[in-house]
């Protein structure tokens, strides 16, 4: 399904992606919510699922936020209007929600963060705010009004007091009402203010945008793993600094810059920085149980006996081509593959489901089979029932 309406992917990327908002009417005609409101509320009762309640006029003050898990009594005491339930990473728990994200494959899969579902009663909102990442807002049920404002940054004034970041100033530039199936794209740092018209559900598809600090930490990890004690700062071209031996000269800074650039600015290392960082699990505390590998060994004996498989809803995969072969990334870890495993790497990282017919036709080296076995044992892939 093409979710961009009359826009081609090329036009969307050229004119809108990370540049300006766009409303796509009937991006998904006839869309039906994956969960009813009470089912969504049921997810918020689970301790392992991240959820929040936001009340514009709560007992504790304006824009009160409560964090789950909740109990049923928490919903019984809510007012009739002006509150919102947010359930994060629904795609981690509902296979159909993970499959919905497949429709955004016109963007890098490793950039997708999660699917958050917002349920709101009349007037429900989280206030005017901005996000530091791209987001698609798919209206799933009911109507929501979206007001668009100014571009923001860390210096934009925030209302003091509430536990959520609500902008102190909102300069409205546009306003739209979305019906079921409509979708709004918002670039990073653009102020927006969504208000429910009656009961509604909105699906928020967010994209990971690593900070410079996160990239620097990942880069440091790569430097440490790819350097030795023999690689050190040198100054064979040093010329005497007459009268200024304590000065850190421009030449010294240039030498340091070249040393670090030589370590970092290698395409394979840059790929490792992104691959390990962007496939790290959203919730590191979630650990799948290890499986017994007897079944896998039986399937491995004949390639065509592999079952229909599916990627775990918690799993994140990516790969890169390197000078020496292939590197596959899963949950922030690396696996070195043979060049013949390119189709396997592409298949695993490009979709959620792996029918046996496709798996049977994919060339697979010994390293490829070891990767599949590892993914199976970690329950990052599992058999479709």
Q: Which descriptors would you attach to this protein?
A:
single chain, 385 residues, alpha+beta, Jelly Rolls, Malonyl-Coenzyme A Acyl Carrier Protein, domain 2, 2 domains, nine-stranded antiparallel β-sheet, three-stranded antiparallel β-sheet, 15 strands, globular
Give a verbal description of the structure:
The chain is an alpha+beta fold. The protein has two domains: 9-207, Jelly Rolls, CATH 2.60.120; 294-383, 3-Layer(aba) Sandwich (Malonyl-Coenzyme A Acyl Carrier Protein, domain 2), CATH 3.40.366. It contains eleven helices and 15 strands. The strands form three sheets. Strands 1, 2, 3, 4, 5, 6, 7, 8 and 9 form a nine-stranded antiparallel beta sheet that branches. A three-stranded antiparallel beta sheet has the order 14-10-15. It has a three-stranded antiparallel beta sheet with strand order 11-12-13, sandwiched between helices. The longest helix has 15 residues, at 250-264. The chain is globular. The relative contact order is 0.12. The mean pLDDT is 91.
Percent strand equals: 25-35%
Number of β-strand runs: 15
| CA(first)-CA(last) distance | 26 Å
Q: Provide the succession of SSEs.
A: HEHEEHEHEEEEEHHHHEEEEHEHHE
**Backbone structural class:** alpha+beta
Q: State the name of the first-level CATH class of the largest domain.
A: Mainly Beta
> Low-confidence segments, ≥5 residues, pLDDT <50?
none
Rg result: 25 Å
pLDDT averaged over residues: 91
